[in-house]
Task: inverse folding
């Protein structure tokens, strides 16, 4: 039986206990990267937290199938239906073909993910693999009266829906309906909120990738690809759809509009959104020019997993402020944690009761709206607890299934053992000096305390004629 997991469902604007469509199984979809440039560490914050959600569900006993698209066509430089194709822009910038750009940045994306211990989804599908599926969906939407042809493009008619702005509260809806000032006037549209399902060359004749369709040579709209790819691999009913908060509108709103119109029933029950990583200038974004990547962090000497730790220390529903000072704090905490784990010894037997007690604490933190910082506090508390090292190591291994911080990375490494030994030697020597001084002051109580302190750390001291000697217990 699966353990209970709850998280904030943007659709109902509250934290809900997750109930899948099918017992024990989770259908999960993640909006993938637009591969015209490197992912910045803001994008990767979203993918890290989505990875934690997937692993939390697996940890709770669910069988998860996760699908991700690769946007290699159709995403324009504006969220509206205007502007240049992002892929084409990338290709021009680097004097390469669109498919070369797509391959290069897809590989770079998964290499970054692997450095951050983000699991590759079960299915990864580039949009350009699914053109037939998109065309079939557009045909159905036209047939059902949800789409119309105007100026060579196919538009989704949002006025055909009772509730287009599904993610907004009633007040917000009143303000929004028909407004969308961000959208450049497109005289082909019947309603301002309508969006393109299929572009034809009549609008973008410099498009490199284009396909035959019943409505002319062209290419699919960005929103359509997530609908097409998720239904292709996960069927008509989806449990969880993920993305960054900037995807809520218009991308996810449009996905729901077209998917439910196409299917004729509710599509996805839970919408999980990660808040932004900001820097001093605001939301980190690719269009700003300079942005931080995993490779840049590495060049500056950072272990990418310290960035994962930095993300896990804060809640996914709060904006996170990036600065190198904040990252350095995470680096220090991470290093200390790894060294503490490296000191643990594989001896004795696992204390099953203590194991169950801390597993329960960790589980309840992580399953309660993904409280990752609380889960890390459980790790610290457990490491301080009065229990043998083997139990601690077993718990660390277990927690790392979700945290994926490689917490055992320094265990059994010779240079670390030497470093830890050097640390231990200087610690013991300083304590021996302190004890000598206490004895000289006739403070025998303090001298005994120091002896016991060392004993607790597994160090036995002996007063001999040649002076104080010490050894490991
Ligand atoms: P893109 O490659 O631009 O399509 O974005 C990939 C993912 O990153 C999407 O889920 C976005 O919502 C998310 N995202 C974009 N900017 C940020 C940011 N500054 N912080 C966190 N997530 C972001
Ligand atoms: Zn999407």
Result:
């Amino acid at each position: 039986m699966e353990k209970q997991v709850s998280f904030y469902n943007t659709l109902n604007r509250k934290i809900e206990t997750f109930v899948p469509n099918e017992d024990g199984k989770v259908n999960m979809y993640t909006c993938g990267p637009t591969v015209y440039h490197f992912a910045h560490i803001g994008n990767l914050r979203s993918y890290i937290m989505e990875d934690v959600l997937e692993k939390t569900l697996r940890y709770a006993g669910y069988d998860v199938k996760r699908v991700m698209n690769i946007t290699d066509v159709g995403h324009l430089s504006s969220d509206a239906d205007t502007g240049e194709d992002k892929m084409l822009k990338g290709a021009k910038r680097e004097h390469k073909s669109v498919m070369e750009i797509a391959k290069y940045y897809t590989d770079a994306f998964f290499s970054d993910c692997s450095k951050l211990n983000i699991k590759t989804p079960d299915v990864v599908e580039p949009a350009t693999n699914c053109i037939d599926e998109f065309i079939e969906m557009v045909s159905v939407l036209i047939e059902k009266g949800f789409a119309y042809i105007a100026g060579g493009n196919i538009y989704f008619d949002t006025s055909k829906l009772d509730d287009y702005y599904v993610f907004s509260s009633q007040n917000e809806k009143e303000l929004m309906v028909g407004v969308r000032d961000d959208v450049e006037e497109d005289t082909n549209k019947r309603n301002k909120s309508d969006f393109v399902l299929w572009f034809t060359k009549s609008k973008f004749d410099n498009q490199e990738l284009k396909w035959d369709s019943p409505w002319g040579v062209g290419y699919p709209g960005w929103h359509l690809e997530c609908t097409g790819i998720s239904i292709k691999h996960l069927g008509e009913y989806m449990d969880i759809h993920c993305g960054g908060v900037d995807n809520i509108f218009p991308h996810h709103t449009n996905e729901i509009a077209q998917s439910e119109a196409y299917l004729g029933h509710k599509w996805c029950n839970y919408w999980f959104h990660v808040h932004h990583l900001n820097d001093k200038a605001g939301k980190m974004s690719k269009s700003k020019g300079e942005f931080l990547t995993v490779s840049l962090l590495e060049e500056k000497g950072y272990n990418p997993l310290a960035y994962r730790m930095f993300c896990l220390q804060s809640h996914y529903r709060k904006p996170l402020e990036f600065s190198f000072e904040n990252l350095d704090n995470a680096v220090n905490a991470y290093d200390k944690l790894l060294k503490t784990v490296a000191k643990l010894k594989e001896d004795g037997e696992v204390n099953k009761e203590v194991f169950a007690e801390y597993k329960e604490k960790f589980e309840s933190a992580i399953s309660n709206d993904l409280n990752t910082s609380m889960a890390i506090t459980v790790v610290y508390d457990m490491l301080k607890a009065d229990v043998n090292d083997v139990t601690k190591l077993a718990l660390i291994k277990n927690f790392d299934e979700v945290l994926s911080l490689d917490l055992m990375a320094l265990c059994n490494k010779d240079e670390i053992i030497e470093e830890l030994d050097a640390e231990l030697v200087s610690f013991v020597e300083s304590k021996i000096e302190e004890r000598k001084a206490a004895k000289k002051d006739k403070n025998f109580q303090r001298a005994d305390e120091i002896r016991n302190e060392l004993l607790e750390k597994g160090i036995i001291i002996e007063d001999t004629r040649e002076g104080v000697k010490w050894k490991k217990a």
